[in-house]
Design goal:
Layout (H helix, E strand, L loop, with lengths): L1 H16 L12 E5 L2 H4 L12 H6 L17 H15 L3 E5 L2 H4 L10 H16 L3 E7 L5 H7 L6 H17 L5 E6 L1 H10 L23 H28 L2 E7 L2 E4 L4 H12 L2 H10 L4 H7 L8 H7 L5 E5 L3 E6 L17 E4 L1 E2 L2 E2 L2 E2 L6 E2 L2 H13 L5 E5 L4 E2 L6 H5 L2 H19 L4 E7 L13 E2 L3 E4 L4 E4 L1 H11 L3 H11 L1
Parallel strand pairs: 1-2, 1-16, 2-3, 3-4, 4-5, 5-7, 6-8, 7-14, 14-16
Antiparallel strand pairs: 8-9, 10-11, 12-13, 15-17, 18-19
The structure holds 1-deoxynojirimycin.
1-deoxynojirimycin (NOJ) binds next to loops.
Length: 507
């Protein structure tokens, strides 16, 4: 008896320290890497593409670190075949990327479909499939044709719902015979908080205390923009479900940024603040799409600043979604600002009347990374996935992004960039935490590392590097980092089916 108990304890300990393996995930699980159009494509004026809001924004001095922009980025537009080779050599079975709206419809629904843009994505998709890599396609990853901004104020105007529906249908029609995973939006919660609450993303709208911008109203605009995003999702989902899904056999979802929040102080108000910070984030979008209305906490705090859904809106919302995409990187502390004084203007979660920070009495919540709000706190993955599982009745989920930011200087040597042991530790600890959530029943169907290659990191330009492959921006040479070798080895490990059939052969 004693012997068995000791053995059980030993096995338990071993499973805790054992390295995560491919076989800890189901055989058909998607494993991939993630990118987005503006961050890697470059070729910003080629092939009849029009200017996007990000092309315009990055060209305004002072907006981006070191004056960087995505004009060339990773030149993926010309090097996509080489990049597919990189993926193939990793052994991934899926690739998440986004379509540039301004490449496919340079003038939105006010102009022609750009056949050169369509051809580019056609070639990309065909080449991926030839290598056995499933395309996992995002329709909007922050960038939109600037014309929509100029003409009618983009996300602030309900006209955009029609434009987005039109754009989505052009894509379903052109690529849906081969694309089986569609996300309407990437991180609309970040898009509206940055674009209209704090104003440090285009269109640079905000008001005090959240920021100083030439235009905007942080008390109302984020909610109007979000409302139009939610209804744009519903418009696209309706089109897909009514006209394409049966024929094409794919699925459609939405991807949210999913920061986990812990109370800063062990007091009820901070526990409520952490709950509020969570609700004002992903559920701001997911609750209306899945349950037909905003989270009750949002209505309580925001009152009439939060729009309501009309009868027609609710009809459209019934098309819901097939999966939830989760971008998880970090955990932060939340402090209540309803009853304690604090600086709500300083964090992306300020509209929830909370202050968020990675620091408690001088101690970071996890090892800091080069991205100021990203800490290594792997338990957050399990907690976030369980939270979504419970809140949304275990709808299928994909971890659409998870990754590690390296920082350095312009003179940091390539050798140092390649030696990214910290990234390996990050990825394996987060994967371990994900596997724990899945063992508890979470229906997670895939995991994508951000990112395949170093790329344009928004406000940080090229100063932060998330890639499994290092990019030399002078020569565009790609070099595998240690983490690329690690991912390849991980993916090359046997999956559960293979392991089982080997076992069956033995017995
Ligand atoms: C989330 C965004 O979707 C992506 O564009 C960004 O580069 C990564 N997070 C890292 O910050």
């Amino acid at each position: 008896m004693k012997y068995y108990m000791a053995l059980a304890v030993l096995l338990g300990v071993l499973s805790l320290v054992a390295a995560i393996e491919r076989s800890d995930f189901p055989p058909l699980f998607l494993f991939g890497t993630s990118t987005s159009s503006y961050q890697i494509e470059g070729a910003y004026l080629e092939g009849n593409k029009s200017l996007s809001n990000w092309d315009v924004f990055t060209h305004i001095p002072g907006n981006i670190k070191e004056g960087d922009n995505g004009d060339i980025a990773d030149d993926h537009y010309h090097r996509y075949m080489e990049d597919i080779e990189l993926m193939h050599s990793l052994g991934v079975n899926s690739y998440r990327f986004s379509i540039s709206w301004s490449r496919v419809l340079p003038r939105g629904r006010f102009g022609e479909i750009n056949s050169i843009g369509i051809r580019f994505y056609d070639k990309l998709i065909d080449a991926l499939l030839l290598k056995g890599i499933q395309p996992f396609v995002t329709l909007n990853h922050y960038d939109i044709p600037q014309e929509l901004e100029v003409r009618y104020g983009a996300w602030l105007n309900s006209e955009i719902q029609e434009d987005f529906g039109y754009y989505a249908e052009v894509c379903f029609k052109a690529f849906g015979d081969r694309v089986k995973y569609w996300s309407t939006f990437n991180e609309p919660n970040v898009l509206v908080k940055r674009g209209y609450l704090r104003g440090n993303f285009p269109p640079n709208h905000c008001s005090k205390p959240f920021g100083t911008c030439p235009n905007g109203d942080s008390d109302t605009e984020p909610y109007v923009a979000a409302h139009n995003v939610i209804l744009s999702h519903a418009t696209a989902a309706e089109i897909y479900k009514k006209k394409y899904q049966v024929k094409q056999g794919g699925s459609i979802g939405i991807v949210l940024s999913a920061v986990w929040f812990e109370p800063l102080r062990d007091i009820p108000n901070d526990r409520l603040a952490a709950q509020r910070a969570l609700s004002f984030d992903g559920p701001w979008f997911l609750d209306p799409i899945i349950y037909g209305d905003y989270p009750p906490e949002m209505r309580q705090v925001l009152g009439s600043n939060l729009p309501t859904f009309s009868f027609e809106d609710r009809r459209k919302l019934k098309y819901k979604l097939d999966f939830i995409g989760v971008n998880h990187y970090t955990t932060l502390y939340a402090k209540d600002c309803m009853f304690s004084p604090c600086r709500i203007g300083d964090s992306d979660q300020g509209n929830a009347v909370v202050f968020t920070t990675g620091d408690r009495n001088g101690l970071p919540i996890g090892t800091p990374t080069a991205m100021p709000t990203f800490y290594v706190a792997p338990d957050g993955m399990e907690k976030m996935v369980s939270y979504i599982m419970q809140r949304y009745n275990n709808l299928p989920m994909f971890i659409t992004e998870n990754g590690y930011a390296q920082g350095g200087e312009r003179y940091t040597s390539v050798k140092d960039w390649l030696d990214d042991k910290d990234r390996i530790e990050f990825l394996s600890s987060y994967l371990t935490s994900l596997a724990t959530a899945m063992r508890q029943g979470a229906d997670v169907r895939g995991y994508f590392i951000w990112s395949l290659v170093d790329n344009f990191e928004w406000l940080y330009g090229y100063t932060l590097r998330f890639g499994l492959y290092h990019v030399n921006y002078e020569t565009q040479e790609r070099t595998p980092k240690l983490s690329a070798k690690w991912y390849k080895k991980f993916l090359g490990g046997k999956n559960k089916l293979q392991k089982m059939s080997n076992y069956m052969k033995m017995v």
